[in-house]
Design brief:
Elements: E1 5-9, H1 13-25, E2 29-33, H2 36-46, E3 50-54, H3 62-71, E4 80-84, H4 89-97, E5 102-105, H5 110-126, H6 139-149, E6 156-163, H7 165-172, H8 174-195, E7 201-206, E8 209-214, H9 219-235, H10 240-243, H11 253-256, E9 267-275, H12 284-293, E10 296-301
Parallel strand pairs: 1-2, 1-3, 3-4, 4-5
Antiparallel strand pairs: 6-8, 6-9, 7-8, 9-10
């Protein structure tokens, strides 16, 4: 069983080879990139548990790679260790300012790096019961609640997804994207507190998705409240000038000046529900896939129109 997925962004062939051989022998899954841009793309495609990042790279430096990793909502919380020949205090501070969790200078001791990797991953695992952005139960805690349903009756699961969050974050910044997730979590939590009763539960499986465990008779009431409140909340995250335009339309040349014309990104809310009575469920994945198959787009923003 893998101890974790590590992405090494290192252009020196001998160092990269040594890192791969050593960490694979320690039962880690190793991803590697020699160019900064490739490292950024690989981090978005494979979402590593940890990035070990050299600062001196052939195309863009490690600081810029770190900025781009932090800018993407999928990897904004991924821990990063800088690995570099630079020893100056200001270089070290620059890396820490960008959100790096650790900093190791070359030449480095492999055992020391291994301990730093292990400690960083352990800190991630300790916080994995709750999503670091929304503070909602996720990971093993959410899986445990869903597994309990397999031996129960009279339950329902609602799967809500915010679609288009990636495009929104690309334009307005990953910080705004994270704030949307936090706001959505608050909206769902408040709705469940007010209308869901003691048995309802909200979890965050990641990727802009939310899972609500409740009872069949509460599904319609909760769904109606979720959609109405989320439409209103998500719309407020768009600038007023963009809110008033047709979603997906380009901004005017006056607003953009000489910058490339950009389209206003559309976000939509998809929702689907499944209940114990619908079919026989043998695995948590069966529940999620059944709810996903029933998802439909119920609203979009910033237009605010219900579809």
């Amino acid at each position: 069983m893998s101890k974790g997925k590590i992405l090494f962004v290192e252009d020196d062939f001998e160092t990269a080879h040594m890192l791969r051989v050593y960490f694979e022998s320690q039962d880690y899954e190793v991803l590697q990139a020699a160019w900064g841009a490739d490292g950024v793309e690989m981090s978005r495609q494979h979402v590593p548990d940890l990035v070990v990042l050299d600062i001196r790279l052939p195309d863009i430096d490690g600081y810029e790679v770190c900025r781009q990793i932090r800018r993407h909502w999928r990897t904004s919380q991924t821990p990063i260790i800088f690995l570099t020949e630079r020893k100056e205090r200001e270089d070290r501070i620059s890396g820490l300012r960008l959100g790096a969790v650790d900093y190791l200078t070359k030449p480095f001791d492999m055992q020391e790096l291994s301990l730093r990797v292990r400690n960083s991953l352990n800190r991630v695992k300790l916080s994995s019961l709750f999503d670091p952005i929304t503070s909602l139960p996720g990971g093993k805690l959410l899986d445990s609640r869903l597994k309990d349903l397999l031996n129960q009756q009279d339950w329902a699961v609602i799967l809500l997804s915010i679609v288009g969050l990636n495009d929104f974050s690309e334009l307005y910044g990953f910080v705004s994207g994270n704030e949307i997730l936090r706001a959505a979590a608050l909206v769902l939590g408040k709705a469940v507190d007010e209308h869901g009763g003691d048995q309802s539960f909200v979890g965050d499986p990641g990727g802009g998705n939310f899972i609500v465990i409740t009872t069949p008779e509460l599904v319609d009431r909760l769904m109606e409240n979720f959609v109405a409140q989320l439409k209103r909340t998500l719309t407020y995250f768009y600038p007023v000038s963009d809110r008033e335009k047709v979603a997906g339309s380009p901004c005017s040349e006056e607003e953009q000046g000489e910058a490339p014309v950009r389209a206003i990104p559309v976000m939509s809310i998809s929702a689907g529900a499944v209940a114990a009575k619908d079919q026989r469920f043998y695995d948590v994945k069966d529940i999620i896939m059944a709810a996903k198959a029933r998802q439909t787009v119920v609203a979009r923003v910033p237009s605010g129109d219900t579809l």
